[in-house]
Write a structure and sequence with these properties.
Oligomer: homodimer
Largest sheet of chain A: 2 strands, antiparallel
Radius of gyration of chain A: 18 Å
Order of helices and strands of chain A: HHHHEEHHEE
Strand content of chain A: 15-25%
Helix content of chain A: 25-40%
């Protein structure tokens, strides 16, 4: 399937979506954040075809989202581990998950959610906030264009 | 292209990704948050084929993310407007955009970003936070399974 490339877009949302490519990629990152490291584990967890999984992992490594390392137990298996760039995708997954918890499940339906390990309390809802922490509504923000590395993008 | 359905997954990330379907959907929502309302405007902005745009808008309306209303200028055109459910996708787009700003642009490259309208300052970076506002690292959170509507999902 031919896909328009968004990789030269000025919009960082479009570029990110272009890299992520399809949903498998974010589900791979989700599993990696949950501790999955081996090809066969990803395959079992996701139920995805091997050729698709292989291609997505290859892209993630090429883009610096994951890196390949030796098995943590000393065996011959390769392991896929998130880089910092990969771990920094976590807020995107949490935002997707919180929206899904709110809108995609009926009351009393069983669902998974992310909690703080120590307190077992759900995380705070992700909101748009100003630099000094005020919550902002959609109507209070706007898109501007400028140069990265200036105050604009600090 | 056949796609595994994730709509009955326990994972809210998977269900949300299943609804969103492909990247066009999030780019439509992005444009709608920026004030785009008409089919022809979405088409021009996104450069997407009419049949794809039509199909994605239909899904968004069916899922309650957008609703169709009369034209705001009294003309015969229909307009597509985000519901609250749709506006609540904004944190997902901001999280995608902030990650993209950080990782998908070179220094000094031109990029767009979201600012607070009144101060023209960039929004605060989206972080994982506990209920009482402490910033949490990926290692401090975990996934649990429970029932929506209980304290677990409050």
């Amino acid at each position: 399937m031919k896909r328009t490339s968004l990789s030269d877009s000025l919009c960082p949302v479009a570029r990110t979506l272009d890299l992520i490519g399809d949903w498998w990629t974010l589900l791979i990152v989700r599993d990696a954040l949950g501790g999955v490291r081996r090809f066969s584990e990803f395959q079992r967890s996701l139920g995805v075809a091997k050729n698709i999984l292989s291609s997505r992992l290859k892209t993630l490594v090429a883009e610096g989202v994951m890196q390949i390392g030796p098995a943590s137990d000393g065996s011959a298996y390769q392991e896929y581990v998130l880089t910092q760039k990969g771990k920094d995708l976590y807020p995107i997954l949490i935002a997707l998950g919180q929206w899904g918890n709110q809108y995609m499940f009926n009351e009393n339906e069983t669902c998974s959610r992310v909690v703080e390990r120590e307190t077992q309390q759900p995380l705070a809802p992700i909101k748009l906030r100003s630099q000094d922490g005020r919550e902002l509504a959609a109507e209070q923000v706007e898109v501007i264009v400028g140069q990265k590395g200036t105050n604009f993008a600090s």
